[in-house]
Amino acid sequence: MNTTPLLRAVPVAALTLLAATGCGGTGVTNDAAANGEAAEGYPVTVENCGRQVTVESAPERIVGLSPAQTELLVRLGLADRLVGQAQTAMHELPEDVAEKASEVPELSTDAPPAREQLLDVQPDAVVAPTEYEFTAEQGFATIDQLSDAGVTTYVAAGGCPERRATGEVTDLFTDLEALGSIFGVPGAADELVAETRGDLEAVEKAVADRPRPTVAQLFVEGKTISAIGAGVEYDMIDRAGGENVFSPDEKLFEQFFSAVVSPEEIAARNPDAIVFAVREQSEAERVETYLRQTFPDVTAVKEDRFVVLRTPDTFPGTLGNVAAVRTIAEGLHPDAF
């Protein structure tokens, strides 16, 4: 997991002052809120990771703490409100999104921004893929610190700790609806939900009632193999018309959605297909070579049934979740498309 050196803590009082003064003391304000009046359609309250998140008016200085969240915000029409994007090296933004976000300041590349880096742009809202982005031990601003400073935080539903092992692709729709409410763009959110839900349902319809091949979804690092048996990744396999050879009910996945397994365990389950995710094409070739050498007698290898996903498409709270379902479905049921 990415780490950043622990930096000096900023007192809560200083955080509050930063949020109150805004950029150069002239932060964006809402006239109704400034006059003690409720903005039209506000206040809005949504539930997020067991917390009640309430906003009195639409946030105007937003930070996306990963490319996936930045993409959601841009596609919701909020590019002009973005004051920062983070972890930009995780993966590239789609070309049309990258163009609209080209002027948004880059706060960090390989890890979440440090506390001071985030606060320096005086956000009034931040959107994150997981709660890791708010880990004090890593030098990041915590949710409580940001809340005390008047900053709204929202974590992708599938990235909430209690959802990581039970997440579903449709958690994305929860995120879109919540973000639409928080940022005052419910119409744009509804359109994006309808479009994305339509894409997902089209795939599910195409593979419905077809024989379901068995699938092992693996993560290979060197010679260490982890099997994925729970979470949004598990749901992807199911919606794509596959039957995961690993199950959330197994002891292996009591604590986490993935677990290190031996090559013998994979061979014994003999999947019809193997799904794995990579960041780069060169990595895909390396993993596939390793799998062929390690499992020559496994059906997936003998029948050359590998499905390669983009790692970013497996992250919680990304439009890529739906793209991943289609990729898997096309690999398992090529004659259905």
UniProtKB/TrEMBL annotation:
InterPro entries: ABC_Transporter_SBP, ABC_transptr_periplasmic_BD. Residues 1-19 form the signal peptide. Residues 61-337 form the Fe/B12 periplasmic-binding domain. Gene3D superfamilies: Nitrogenase molybdenum iron protein domain (3.40.50.1980). The keyword Signal applies. Keywords: Signal. Belongs to the bacterial solute-binding protein 8 family. This is ABC transporter substrate-binding protein. It comes from Nocardioides turkmenicus.
